[in-house]
Amino acid sequence: MVLKKKKSLLLGITGGIATGKSVVAEMFRELGAFIIDSDLVSRRVVEPEKPAWKEIVAYFGEGILLEDRSLNRRLLSEMVFSDPEKRKRLEEYTHPRIREEILREIQHHLLKAPEAIIAVIVPLLFEVHWEALFHKTLLIYAPKEIQLQRLMVRDRISRERALRIIDSQMPIEEKRLYADFIIDNSGSLEETRGQVEKVWKILQAIRGELRTKTL
Predict the structure, then answer these.
(1) Domains of the chain (ranges, CATH numbers)
(2) What is the chain's alpha carbon radius of gyration, rounded to the nearest angstrom?
């Protein structure tokens, strides 16, 4: 990928639901990284009248819309949760555009800071096989039981529903096999921050090596 040939370093941050990806990303931001959140990008690409929005409405019907014509994300999530065909269609409409917008944002940051460390939060990084976009990947890890408890509190849902959501994703233990770095976010914020700082130093060293190779 052409963006990886520059002097910057691109990091893909992933993890299971409720493992603390945003918390860790904010710690990297404080250290100097640029952060791109694919969830925020995904919301932009389905704004009313955009191409993905039109395709989704054409397929799912106008019953999927709220009064302001924006997507009813909760209803849409429920519709695709147990229907693989509908989920596939939704991904076909959104994933290419999310990827395109992420690449555009990366390029935007590189124009301002050619040697930046840019971290992109992609919850389904390994599932959609976007590893090639990045120099390194980082998994934010928490044991399944901790995921469950956090998700139940955060979304105010039952244990049964939280378990169904977690079980619909790639197992967190499997994701460990694919990541270049792992941060265990099951402890205190101080413990997590210490791990982030260690990874940050390694990333800076790797960026230095990349910069040397491009000279």
Answers:
(1) 2-44+104-214 (3.40.50.300)
(2) 18
Average pLDDT of the chain to the nearest whole number: 95
Q: Fill in the amino acid letter for 27.
A: M
Predicted confidence band of residue 193 (pLDDT cuts 50, 70, 90): very high
Give the torsion through C-alpha atoms of 106, 112, 115, 119, to 10 deg.
-30
Q: Name the nearest CA neighbour of 16 among 132, 179, 136.
A: 179
Query: How far apart (Å, rounded) are the C-alpha atoms in residues 94 and 38?
Result: 11
175, 122 in Cβ contact below 8 A? no
In terms of Cβ atoms closer than 10 Å to its own Cβ (0-12, 13-18, 19+), residue 153 is exposed
Instruction: Evaluate if pTM is beyond 0.85.
Output: yes
Looking at this protein, which amino acid is placed at residue 40? L
- The confidence band for 102, taking pLDDT boundaries of 50, 70 and 90, is very high
Structure tokens at 113: 């800071």
Q: Which strand ranges, in their side-by-side order, compose the sheet holding 117-121?
A: 34-37, 117-121, 9-15, 136-141, 181-184
